Amino acid sequence: MSTPFLSVRDLTVDFHTEDGVVHAVDGLSFDVEKGTTLGIVGESGSGKSVTNLTVLGLHNPETTKISGEIVLDGQQLIGAPSSTMEKLRGNKVAMIFQDPLTALSPYHTIGKQIGEVYRKHTGASRAQSRARAIEMLTRVGIPQPKIRVDDYPHQFSGGMRQRAMIAMALVCDPDLLIADEPTTALDVTVQAQILDLLKELQDQTGASIILITHDLGVVANTAHNVLVMYAGRAVERGTVKEVLQEPRHPYTWGLLASMPRLGAPVDVPLRPVRGTPPSLINVPPGCPFHPRCDYTQLAGPEICRSERPELSPHRGHGDACYLTLAQKREIHK
Amino acid sequence: MFPFIIRRTLGAAVTLLIIAAVTFFLFFAVPGDPARLACGKVCPPELLEQARHNLGLDQPLFAQFVAWLVGIFAGREYEGLGHCPAPCLGYSFVNRAPVFETILDRLPLTVSLTIGAMIVFFTFGVATGIVAALRQGKPLDKIASVSSLIGASVQIYFVGTLAMYFFVYQNPIFQQPRYTPFTENPLAWAGGLLLPWLVLAIIFTANYTRMTRSTMVEQLSEDYVRTARAKGMSGRSVVMRFALRGTLTPIVTILGVDLGTLIGGAIITETTFGLQGIGQLSIRSVVNSDLPMLMATVLVAAGAIVFFNIIVDILYAVIDPRVRLG
């Protein structure tokens, strides 16, 4: 196996707030291979976004404590000087945000916002970067790019703004694209278009993508691998097929059961995961999911409450739960 | 843009007309007789009648107002004083000085005072606000907030008088405040007004520091500022090009109000430093029941506010492309 393009090891991120220390990410490890898409799934506050802001070094250094390793293409990013991170951002690693209306500056034209990334990282002239912006707008399917390049974001529709955002992220041909809920703020019909666009661009450029979402449907359509996060930890990891067809962790079961599917009987109600996500200041000891889990009796209530399960096996399809494989298969049939 | 300016100018004219009318009729609603003041201490009835006639006060109020208004556009004839060409604001009740010329004479000082002070308090206030926002909770931020609180609390007659005592009389660091026209000698112009500028700035800076700091803190947590950082923009360009742009709107708003107020006359400042500007003129015309002079100073003050309001509205559209002038 080749060394992965992005390798995250034992990543721990703590925020200091007035209420206490928030353990946003706790001992997270994952890899992203070149040209593949990793879907990171979890509820709000499960640490998905924080993990990726950390990869880009966009956390607040004053209040955040980070440990572990983030190695991108052989380069250690944790503790890297800010000038290194600045050169990396928008260039080798780019990010797409959830809400393209607030994520684009209302004060600058679309063309300027795309062009300045290109200028910054390649030293191109104004005219060159403008031409590049028009080229990028064409690639992401904006009609009349030569005219729209001078528009402001408020003159774009929601879907077009996200396309512009993608154009901005891809302008320097990044090797890794982090998309943080790129379709959450969009219409369902536009969602599919944007996801198709991302896939198409990945085929063209061979970039790796980390797709952060709470929507397993999005993952099923776009990702190669999946990482399910709960309370800042990975609870299940595997290929899309493995995780969606043979899910092993009770939390993944809960997520799947709470999701509507075409073809499912209409009279079977959706089952939400009971309880609420834990506070990340006082994370439950043992398995963080045990207060919401229906299977603690079966797995052994003592161990669920006291000892933290590790993701196992280390490679391939793994999950962090004390149920035996046979029990998991029996329950999820 | 052009239709907007036309429409706002017409609106401004109506506003000024209403303000002029209200001022005019209020003047006669309060007790006091300008004719008796003009006539002097010992004043026989026939002289009083004569003075009243000379000042035009024997006419009906409405006719007086119309005559004043027409004078602005068409000029006016005065018995004994001759023709007063348009724009005619009349003659002072007190010393018969032509009002329009007096205003023109006083305005440069007030404008100089305003512009100089503005440059100091605007740059200093905004800069301190940015630094405070970037150093949130750090000593520099605390120093900025404490000193702006002090600045906002002190009064100009207090600081101004102290400054005059210590820095002009005790240790002549600053010149005695005086006005030299800029065109005559720019150095003397700046030297003579430096102390009033700085003292005015102490009081006004605080507002700008606090407004810049709070808006900047908000802006720095905006999504698009995060995007700018995610694109690899340098810290400096993130602050100056992205975050600062969003903080300009509220700052420009208070700047418009402050400039309008200052042009209308920094009454206390002018009095403290013994400068003969619009502020001094307005307060003296109130005390002397000098109606024509009073009307003119009110017009200048109101005109300045209305003017800067229009400018601020135009600036909104310049700063933020989402704003449409309509």
Automatic annotation (TrEMBL), chain A:
Superkingdom, natural source: Bacteria
Domain ABC transporter: from-to ranges: 8-256
Keyword check for tRNA processing: no
InterPro entries the UniProt entry points to: AAA+_ATPase, ABC_Ni/Peptide_Import, ABC_transporter-like_ATP-bd, ABC_transporter-like_CS, Oligopep_ABC_C, P-loop_NTPase
Compartment(s) where it occurs, according to its Swiss-Prot or TrEMBL record: Cell membrane
Keywords of this entry: ATP-binding, Cell membrane, Membrane, Nucleotide-binding, Transport
Topology with respect to the bilayer: Peripheral membrane protein
Single annotated GO MF: ATP binding
Stored SMART domains: AAA
Pfam families: ABC_tran, oligo_HPY
Main location: membrane
RNA-binding found in the keyword field: no
PANTHER family, per the entry: DIPEPTIDE TRANSPORT ATP-BINDING PROTEIN DPPD, OLIGOPEPTIDE TRANSPORT ATP-BINDING PROTEIN APPD
Family note: Belongs to the ABC transporter superfamily.
Protein name per its UniProtKB record: ABC transporter ATP-binding protein
Species for this entry: Streptosporangium fragile
Lineage: Bacteria, Bacillati, Actinomycetota, Actinomycetes, Streptosporangiales
Automatic annotation (TrEMBL), chain B:
Gene3D superfamilies the record matches: MetI-like
InterPro entries hit by this protein: BPD_transp_1_N, MetI-like, MetI-like_sf
Record PROSITE patterns: ABC_TM1
ABC transmembrane type-1 domain boundaries: 107-316
Major place of residence: membrane
UniProt keywords, alphabetically: Cell membrane, Membrane, Transmembrane, Transmembrane helix, Transport
Descriptive protein name: ABC transporter permease subunit
PANTHER family: DIPEPTIDE TRANSPORT SYSTEM PERMEASE PROTEIN DPPB-RELATED
Family: Belongs to the binding-protein-dependent transport system permease family.
Domain of life, per lineage: Bacteria
Subcellular location field: Cell membrane
CDD domains in UniProt: TM_PBP2
Entry's transmembrane regions: 109-134, 146-167, 187-206, 242-268, 294-319
Membrane disposition: Multi-pass membrane protein
